[in-house]
Design goal:
This is Metal ABC transporter ATP-binding protein. The chain is α/β, with parallel strands linked by helices and 232 residues long. Helices cover 34% and strands 26% of the residues. It has one domain (2-226): P-loop containing nucleotide triphosphate hydrolases (Rossmann fold). It has a six-stranded mixed beta sheet with strand order 5-6-7-3-8-9, with helices on both faces. Strands 2-1-4 form a three-stranded antiparallel beta sheet, covered by helices on one side. Helix 6 links the parallel strand 6 and strand 7. Helix 4 packs across helix 5 (133-147) and helix 5 runs parallel beside helix 6. The longest helix has 16 residues, at 163-178. The radius of gyration is 17 Å and the shape is globular. Bound molecules: adenosine-5'-triphosphate (ATP). Residues 13-14, 18, 36, 38-44, 81 line the site of adenosine-5'-triphosphate.
Length: 232
């Protein structure tokens, strides 16, 4: 099954075209890295997949449905970039994780399991605003786990997190894919990519390259496209 299929998509923000003629396909059960410089359109592509922005042209299917249907059925989990999170919102770790669960009956167990999987069991009653950046990202990932989303979008989950948190996140991402879910992760960090993802999409307002990570993200290609030397 195909998790995301975008064809010749155009997306505008504030009347500017920020994605042009974008065609990408992400197969179910894969971990796909979304790469590109600041302003390349990574968050915009996530917003479209997660039904937060409409297409100005082209078409998109998410889990075989429209983005709206997929979102409303709770099949898509989206962890936005930390800059977009409202830290004044008064909610604890447990609160934020349980928000993703539609079934009340299983809520407690699923919440506890998800919190444990990201290693936040000692912080369940801590308000979100009093967590570190890395802990907060883990809390939002736990929400996707509890929700049992089939498609998980993670916008720069590794930015500013320490090595143990990064490894916890990577482990959780691998587990999700092993269970048949699809994970798309935007990142600036191209080091060690082939240790945790299968495919990559390189964006620059359009698709520069996409495919299996080893063929797509070569040092030569990145240097050519962006002048990168390992990390953007
Ligand atoms: N809310 C908004 N309103 C208008 N334009 C926006 C908005 N958000 C982003 N943009 C513009 O859309 C373009 C793509 O931005 P986007 O946030 O998708 O890039 P990105 O690849 O996620 O960047 P970064 O790595 O900095 O997070 C940029 O030119 C940006 O200025």
């Amino acid at each position: 099954m195909t998790a995301v299929e975008v064809e010749e998509a155009t997306v505008r923000r504030a009347r500017r075209t920020v994605l042009r003629d974008v065609s990408v396909r992400v197969e179910a059960g894969r971990v796909c890295a979304l790469l590109g410089m600041n302003g390349a359109g990574k968050s915009t592509l996530f917003d479209v997949i997660a039904d937060r922005l409409p297409l100005a042209g082209g078409s998109i299917e998410v889990l075989g449905a429209t983005p709206r249907k997929a979102r409303r059925a709770g099949r898509v989990g989206y962890v936005v970039q930390s800059e977009r999170i409202d830290l004044d919102f008064p909610v604890t770790v447990r609160g934020v994780v349980s928000m993703g669960i539609a079934s009340r009956r299983e809520a407690r167990q699923r919440t506890d399991d998800a919190i444990e999987r990201v290693g936040l069991q000692d912080l369940v009653d801590r308000p979100l605003g009093r967590l570190s950046g890395g802990q907060r990202k883990r809390a939002f990932l736990a929400r996707c786990l509890a929700q049992r989303a089939e498609l998980i979008l993670l916008d720069e989950p590794f930015a500013g997190v320490d090595r143990p948190s990064e490894l916890t996140l990577r482990q959780a991402i691998g587990d999700l894919a092993a269970d048949g879910n699809t994970v798309i992760v935007s990142t600036h960090d191209v080091r060690e990519l082939d240790t945790w993802c299968d495919d990559a999409i390189v964006l620059a307002g359009r698709v520069v390259a996409s495919g299996p990570v080893r063929e797509t993200v070569t040092a030569e290609r990145l240097a050519q496209a962006f002048g990168w030397e390992g990390s953007a």
